[in-house]
Amino acid sequence: QVQLVESGGGLVQPGGSLRLSCAASGFALDHWAIGWFRQAPGKEREGVSFISRNDRDTYYADSVKGRFTISRDNVKNMAYLQMNSLKREDTAIYYCALSLLGGLPVVPQEYNYWGQGTQVTVDS
Asked: Which entry of 26, 100, 116, 122 is 20 to 30 Å from 37 by CA?
């Protein structure tokens, strides 16, 4: 059974850091492109960061470029999103997702499996 479980969310002050984790089970993570998406209240789900199956390509939304870093550990079957210099506008539910597509899929429709999400709240 394919399963993704995010963790690491929480309440953090502006300027703080969080590392989100995505634990994969039921398959080998190295066969999949990984995406992190987020959805704030009243807004559409947006792509935050993506990494291709072969790890050669990454993408960051302009709003997080220079602050967020996507990575994976295929031995542990884990994906991560390191988030630094957090801003209030980063507040959202964050989801990890997996895609079998080659290249660098960047839209939700290209992703096959999703986690349940983890809440990130940036507030003083």
From this structure: 26
